[in-house]
Amino acid sequence: MDRTLAKTLIDVCEKRKKADLLIRNCRIVDVFSKTVFEGSISVIDGHFASFSDEIEADEVIDAGGRYVVPGFIDAHCHIESSHLSPAAFSDLIIPKGTTTVIADPHEICNVAGLDAMRYMLMASADLPLSVYYMFPSCVPATDSEHAGAVLLASDIDTMIDDERILGLGEMMNYPGIAAGLDFVLDKLECAYSRGKFIDGHAPDVKDRDLDAYSACRIKTDHECSTPEELRDRVRRGMYVALRQGTACKNVLDLLPGVNDDNLSRIMFCTDDCQCETIIDEGHISNGVNLAIGAGLKAEKALSAATLNAALCYDLRDRGAIAPGLKADFFICDSLEKIVPDEVFVSGKLTAKGGKILSPSSHIKPEKVSGMMNVKNFSSQRLVLPLEGDEARVIKIIPGSVVTENCIRKVSRDEKGNFTRDEKTDILKIASVERHKGTGNVGLGLIEGYGMKSGAVATSISHDSHNIIVVGTSDEDMERAVNELISTGGGVTIIQKGKVLMTHPLEIAGLMTDESAQVVYDTLREMHEIAYEKLGVNRNIDPFMTLSFMALPVIPALKITDSGLFDVTAFAFTSVNP
Amino acid sequence: MDRTLAKTLIDVCEKRKKADLLIRNCRIVDVFSKTVFEGSISVIDGHFASFSDEIEADEVIDAGGRYVVPGFIDAHCHIESSHLSPAAFSDLIIPKGTTTVIADPHEICNVAGLDAMRYMLMASADLPLSVYYMFPSCVPATDSEHAGAVLLASDIDTMIDDERILGLGEMMNYPGIAAGLDFVLDKLECAYSRGKFIDGHAPDVKDRDLDAYSACRIKTDHECSTPEELRDRVRRGMYVALRQGTACKNVLDLLPGVNDDNLSRIMFCTDDCQCETIIDEGHISNGVNLAIGAGLKAEKALSAATLNAALCYDLRDRGAIAPGLKADFFICDSLEKIVPDEVFVSGKLTAKGGKILSPSSHIKPEKVSGMMNVKNFSSQRLVLPLEGDEARVIKIIPGSVVTENCIRKVSRDEKGNFTRDEKTDILKIASVERHKGTGNVGLGLIEGYGMKSGAVATSISHDSHNIIVVGTSDEDMERAVNELISTGGGVTIIQKGKVLMTHPLEIAGLMTDESAQVVYDTLREMHEIAYEKLGVNRNIDPFMTLSFMALPVIPALKITDSGLFDVTAFAFTSVNP
């Protein structure tokens, strides 16, 4: 708020000045009182002025008694997971009613460090979508894998003062908090010294460990999966974000823990949401609709999805429909299922009927493209010697990013190297370092992927985003890696030495400037190819499943560019048990 | 929060370090979830560490299953109304469970301007009570009366950066907001430019005027008296403070408007609370107990009285019992009626059984004492000529600060001057300017005070704090004024030229360094004298009633040093109708 805007708003309310827009005959969702009232809204200079229908305005609309709802705020997301540039992401989610996101550019910063943070700020500066950031706290996510950057407190200090950076992103290093590690505390201090916030990420953390974690003013958690976890976090003053993303879907599991008495500490988030999910199911609207469908009163769900996030992140200019706030809102027919029709950003009609009215301009990703620095790679690097006929295998759990650590009987060739047995569902998987040209290749075995021939590779592999590749033959795996090197990253499907299809992700190997629809169509086609032609298990997402196989902070067994990692023991392990 | 404290808290939670204090066997009031759970609390360096009973500590207490409640936060008060210095005020309210106040030193600043603000900051810097301030926005409260200071935006700019000044105090000049007056907007800008808050004060303001008022980011209101007013403010994003003070008691009236869905926007405040009220009825505890007694679940009332105020004023270090927060709390036996027993401030036992354990040190009020600059005063200045036998009379409404504007038949002496008619209850009232030696004396008539002989005067008269005096004779009125000049301010009772009793208020004529008990005993005795010997109406407070007769922002008719003021017309008026 500033003096000029205050004066303008007063003048409109007192009818000394015309508003830009008056919408009469609204059912206004009041997220402060979780109720609906009938009235008008008026907008001047992008902000709500009055509820009165007496306001004079340049443009007058009749809402016909439809509902007017504040724009959704996503309390925690990674834009990169959509595969879209910030501009394309904005064009995708604004029509779904989300007008503000709190984004953690953890993925792209793992690839390109401060250059990535600068790109993300710049590429989202002038979008209809308000993009706030949390500075990634854990780059690299672990010491167990080689990312493209290391961001220390000294790096955070150089950028955290930016007014669109609200604080420190999800503190995944909860063991580091419990241990009181200096380099972790240094990062917290970056936020403390500026009065900025710290997001949490604390799956399964409880009791005294959770006391320590929350005592550090880590303010949020989006990793709850049970009502008890939710209760324990709220009790300690944390906000809990109900997550409904592509892989992690917690809304229905957590809802039994949400009640009138703790609702004010509940938000919604998407975390990792692919653009297919957003197109098919919605964005924050998806979680909200699930909650409403499960019995949460719509006004309460909407309050959590708007006001609560604004309060948590101290976004004082938004989160509700009220005089003086930024006029981000949408109109919809019903509160039984929220389907945003007209979406207004700063009082301007920006999307209608699920479509953006005018696509956003893209910012050239100059410093964050062509990031495929792979050295000394060939199929020779994929040879996996075994000591016996038993091997340690990563077992995929469909619908989860958690894996199991199994021992399986496997076949060996005459040299004692792993060879695929068509009677089993065990494949070779590799993580190929792509940032610093180290030549690292980590090898492992995976069960449950289902592929019968060919190879799949992706340069999206959380959180270090090396190239992850799985295949029935070393030759197809090699071809897949080389294809991604040539496209500057992406997702590819190979069969018998041929590229069946590639989805290029030219921005840091993670995102593209193509529109959501192009990405959607491409990935949909590629999914079908993976299932139909390669025989990938239809109970899993062929690409996202791979993307989480390298995440060595989620149990139980993962593959990194340095080899197999036992997350439970937090130590490297061997394929040979 | 800082790095050192975070490290210490982690070390205690992880049992690498001993806590200062462990209290086992507690029923902990969780104001985040509005529920109670069984557990332990531990404290290190003034902050809560853990809920675990495994923590090792230097001192271990067993709470015996009693309730542990966060210290109350008074969302809006004027310390001056207690008649006590900040130190004596702290000693009084800490035993009542209030550990933080948001104080607006509006009264003393009207007397002594920036010197007063500096005194209040200094005098409260090292108390057990955490005193935050809102910088008075309306000094003087109106142009209609002469106060001791004028504080403009340029003055506010010099002090508002102080970290204990949270923003701009109650914006009483709502007509100035509606008119968009420059000097008012200048003051708002002082808060905007620092991201600080603005408190409201908007009785009866509604519809488009309330839109304009809330559009300016005026964040709170404590002047609601009906559930509809409460609803209208919450709907516009304001927090509403339920007020329970000495004169203004709104809790029970507003409670029907409070529900689960808007509770998060509700706080408690005392506004103006004399020390007698606090001793007899409690402080924030009083409002909370009334609410509980009227059916509000205790955990909800406690949440409003603690967490909500902390959230409203962005006091991130307090407002609940949770790891990392300041360990301000109390222990009590029951939640049916909250009677704080042991009160802990920063984890130290500070009061027990309603008594402070160690009285606070006072700061000498050097620049704010002896402030009685009255010129050219004598009983001659009290002569009130009338044009006829009807006069405009201020009618007291018992229990309210609102008055009625009445026309009454009155008696005149041979010179046509007002003379008291013993058959009526109409007395002369005067406001004697005491700040700048202007010699101003405003004269009026008042009905309902009941006095049969003598005079009563006080240097507390909101908001300009000139001397207000009422009497049955001009001579006793003169004597009363001269008594206050000689004591440097206070409250006095005169009869037949003699001082029956005087309560000196040496700090700006508003407060004293005496303890609450001394003030209580003195005022109690003086009340009895006023009722017994002077015949003052027992349905009113003899002193506080006078103190509000000069407040020209509360309807309907008030007396100022410049004469009678018609608040409804917002213009001076005459005793002659």
Overview of the molecule:
Two copies of one chain form a homodimer. Helices cover 26% and strands 26% of the residues of chain A. With 577 residues, the first copy, chain A, is an alpha/beta fold. In chain A, strands 1, 2, 3, 4, 5, 14, 15, 16 and 17 form a nine-stranded mixed beta sheet that branches. Chain A has an eight-stranded mixed beta sheet with strand order 19-18-23-22-25-24-26-27, sandwiched between helices. Chain A has a five-stranded parallel beta sheet with strand order 6-7-8-9-10. In chain A, helix 4 runs parallel beside helix 6 (182-192). The radius of gyration of chain A is 24 Å and the shape is elongated. The interface between A and B is large, with 66 and 66 residues.
The coarse silhouette of chain A is elongated
Mean pLDDT of chain A: 96
Instruction: Assess the beta-strand content of chain A as a share of residues.
Output: 25-35%
Stretches of chain A where pLDDT is under 50 for at least 5 consecutive residues are: none
Topology, number of strands of chain A = 30
Keywords:
homodimer, 577 residues, alpha/beta, nine-stranded mixed sheet, 16 helices, 30 strands, 26% strand, elongated
